[in-house]
Design goal:
By secondary structure, this protein is an alpha/beta fold. The chain has two domains: 2-15 and 258-397, Lyase, Ornithine Decarboxylase, Chain A, domain 1, CATH 2.40.37.10; 35-248, Alanine racemase (TIM Barrel, Alpha-Beta Barrel). Helix content is 29%, strand content 22%. The protein contains twelve helices and 17 strands. The chain has helices spanning 18-34, 49-55, 67-77, 95-101, 110-116, 155-164, 187-204, 223-240, 250-253, 286-289, 308-313, 391-397, and strands at 13-17, 37-42, 61-64, 82-86, 104-107, 125-131, 153-154, 172-176, 209-211, 243-246, 257-267, 273-277, 320-325, 334-340, 349-352, 373-377, 383-387. The strands form two sheets. Strands 1, 11, 12, 13, 14, 15, 16 and 17 form an eight-stranded mixed beta sheet that branches. It has an eight-stranded parallel beta barrel with strand order 2-3-4-5-6-8-9-10, surrounded by four helices. Strand 8 (172-176), helix 7 and strand 9 (209-211) form a beta-alpha-beta unit. Helix 7 (187-204) runs parallel beside helix 8 (223-240). The chain is globular. The protein binds pyridoxal-5'-phosphate. Residues 42, 44-45, 63, 86, 178, 181, 213-215, 247-251 line the site of pyridoxal-5'-phosphate.
């Protein structure tokens, strides 16, 4: 991505690159096929159609969490792929569209199950989301399995509901769970599947399919961990004769995205300078949401901090230290502390990497700061501008539009 320092692109910019995207897709597709899993892409991490089109030869379908995502999925897939729908917030008025667009719908609660099942008849396969009750994520805000989570039915609740509504059981054909966030191992998945098999194996035996959700960084997982994955999937397939779906999101698109920014200003005392960039945390809101997260910047010492040899040679004084900050009025619009071999200069470009997931989809126009231009770099290295946002887009976000230049 060296060319991003020099290419004729206007900053700030989201740049998506085909090559790392295809690498991630190949990696996960081969894990899925080695394990006889059905591979869906969870659209919520990035819904950019140019990227979604590149996925069509790799995935069996898309996992959507809203009617808009389901519409986009169906538009791209045509009649040749499946759309799976999972949300804790299904509205009755969405049902006709869900029936038209989707093949699978996962209900989230006993109420959902009782109220909506009669309206979801026909071709659609109905699943139920469970909360197996094993927390794999330290921070409750991102833990789908915390005791107070609304995401899926706890198994005892599921059983109690079933006792009172046994007539509903034949209408469901699958179980869904999504239990992790940025997981780097599969020990927890195996433990969870073992618990589900123990606690509701009799119900699993009546089901056709099981969706293990997303929440894993497949790029970091080693062979030993893959054994845990294999065992978890194998248990569902062999013991319970289930078709297994997986629906990763972020791991597929993360490394394909960059944010290219320019240094607008450098302020502050010599030892703790702040470089103000023309991007902002509005363009990568998880930097603010996740308190411990400092995004990767190419050329920053921190990028190599896991390289022990490099770390051993590191001398703080050899580097120029900066807080990188955004262009909005928010005091906390800061990306973190960085160290560079050369002093930064006004006008210089910086490249944030691993910016493909949960950035564009969460971006907004706080302060009226425009969204980044969107560029795509194809396999041959050709960079093209796909979208630039204008004052009219800003007006749309402000619930207004201009006709012939007047509001
Ligand atoms: C139900 C469900 N499936 C899949 C995913 C994708 O997770 P990730 O992007 O972490 O792989 C999510 C993310 O929140 C989710 O809620």
């Amino acid at each position: 991505m060296e060319q991003l320092y020099t290419a004729q692109l206007e900053t700030p910019a989201y740049v998506f690159a085909e090559e790392p995207l295809l690498e991630s897709l190949d990696r996960v597709k081969s894990i899925a096929s080695d394990n006889r899993c059905h591979f869906l892409y969870s659209m919520k991490s990035l819904e950019y159609p140019t990227v979604l089109k590149k996925m069509l030869n790799h995935v069996e379908g898309f996992a959507a969490s809203s009617v808009f995502e389901a519409r986009l999925a169906r538009e791209l897939l045509g009649s040749s792929g499946t759309v799976h729908y999972t949300t804790p917030g299904i509205r009755s008025r969405d049902i006709p569209e869900i029936l038209e667009l989707c093949d699978y719908v996962t209900l989230n609660s006993g109420n959902h199950w009782r109220r909506l099942t009669p309206h979801l008849q026909g071709h659609i396969k109905i699943g139920l989301r469970i909360n197996p009750g094993i927390s794999l994520v330290g921070d409750e805000r991102y833990d789908p399995c915390s005791s107070s989570s609304r995401l899926g039915m706890h198994i005892p609740e599921f059983r109690a509901h079933l006792r009172k509504n046994i007539q509903l059981l034949p209408h469901i054909s699958g179980i869904h769970m999504h239990t992790n966030c940025e997981g780097r191992d599969f020990g927890g998945l195996l433990k969870t599947v073992e618990k589900v098999s123990r606690d509701m194996g009799d119900i699993l035996n009546d089901m056709e399919w099981f969706n293990i959700g997303g929440g894993y960084f497949f790029e970091y997982i080693n062979d030993e961990e893959m054994e845990h994955f294999r065992s978890a999937v194998d248990l569902l397939q062999r013991r319970h004769n289930l078709t297994v779906f997986m629906e990763p999101g972020g791991t597929i698109v993360r490394s394909s995205g960059y944010i290219v920014a320019s240094v607008l200003d450098i302020v502050g005392p010599v030892r703790s300078k702040v470089a103000v960039l023309d991007t902002t945390i509005n363009h990568m809101p998880e930097v603010y949401e996740y308190e411990e997260y400092t995004p990767d910047v190419i050329g920053n010492y921190g990028e190599d901090e896991y390289d022990e040899e490099y770390a051993a040679d590191y001398d703080d004084d050899d580097y120029y230290h900066y807080t990188l900050a955004g262009a909005s009025c928010l005091a906390g619009d800061q990306f973190g502390e960085y160290a560079f071999e050369e002093p930064l200069k006004i006008g210089q470009r910086l490249i944030f990497r691993n910016m493909g997931a949960y950035t564009m989809v969460k971006s907004h126009m706080f302060n009226g700061i425009n969204l980044p231009n969107v560029y795509f770099v194809d396999k041959s290295g050709e960079l093209r501008l796909e979208r630039n946002y204008t004052y009219d887009d800003f007006l749309n976000r402000c619930s207004a539009h201009s006709t012939n230049g007047s509001l």
